[in-house]
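Supplementary Text 2. Reproducibility record for the structural model of the 86-residue chain.

All settings were left at their defaults, and a single model was retained for analysis rather than an ensemble. We include the record here because the model underlies the residue-level annotations in Supplementary Table 4.
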Amino acid sequence: MNTNGKSMFVIRLELELNPSGVYTVTSPDVPGLVTEGSTPEEISHNVQEVLAGLFEVWSALGMEIPVAIRQKKIALTQSCEMLVAA
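Retained model, structure tokens:
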């Protein structure tokens, strides 16, 4: 599905909390995806920026999108589980 000219994908993210309270974010599905963020909103924004950059690089180099991403194209409406502290 496409929304605002962008495709939606499911990717796994791994978050590692640093001593400074910032999460380092990587993905076993997306080689080269490394970013940081302090809040879910910041992490989501940063991941989207990194993915946009990676898509540009892959396209410019004539590389295919990683299989893990291609196989998980999804519809817009999804649910997720999140561990939260209260």
